[in-house]
TrEMBL record:
Lineage: Bacteria, Pseudomonadati, Bacteroidota, Sphingobacteriia, Sphingobacteriales
InterPro entries (alphabetical): DUF3050, Haem_Oase-like_multi-hlx
Organism annotation: Pedobacter paludis
Protein known as: Heme oxygenase
Amino acid sequence: MHPNITKIQQNIAPLRQQIINHKVYSAISEIEDLQIFMEHHIFAVWDFMSLLKALQINLTCTTLPWFPVGDAVTRQLINEIVAGEESDVDADGNIKSHFELYLDAMKQCGANVEPITNFLHSLQKGRDFDMAFELAQVPFAAKDFVNSTFETINSNKAHLQAASFTFGREDLIPNMFFSMVNDLNSTQPDKVSIFKYYLERHIEVDGDHHSHLALSMTEKLCSNDENFWLEAEETTKIALQKRIDLWDAAYVAIANRKVFA
């Protein structure tokens, strides 16, 4: 492994631990709590797909006429990740993106999908992000999270996009969260089975194979440019802090529900 990969992993370890040990996970004990969590998390799932497609646009040819773009190995890495994320299968064998699978899980769970669907409909109609956020009444922390991700996307710097994708998104869900979901699924499978499947796919695909591909991609893009590595680390730290802020907001919303329930 490249020494700068190891260095970044060491330097971001405190932020990762804050996420892995976040109190939001222990606060989720009922279906209503999980609904609130998912209503915040869905925006991170969506902009993850946007970050992924930004990488594909930067690292491969997505216009006509076609020409070979960049490094062939990097093209293979990003195309393989895109295929797995954008065209996976649900529990019944239907082809779906991970975002669509998460939406299915939200609907089964009874979570409110209107903010995310209204937000996307507004963007599809050509409204800007600020207007789409306002019309959909997106939670502030989710809005802040998406805006931060799109700052990285709009930088048009593939090494920053790769760093955020690689270090800021993978392997950040603790075992206790899986245990909680399994407990809920054992009593209410009609509400949690799709989300349980989504998490299992996350472990199988995102957390293992794709994480290794992403590390290789980031290493190739940063190469031997020390400034690239420094920028990559800073971008990663920002992405992780925004995730902490998003989890903080979900925790407050869950805690308030319990107080006023």
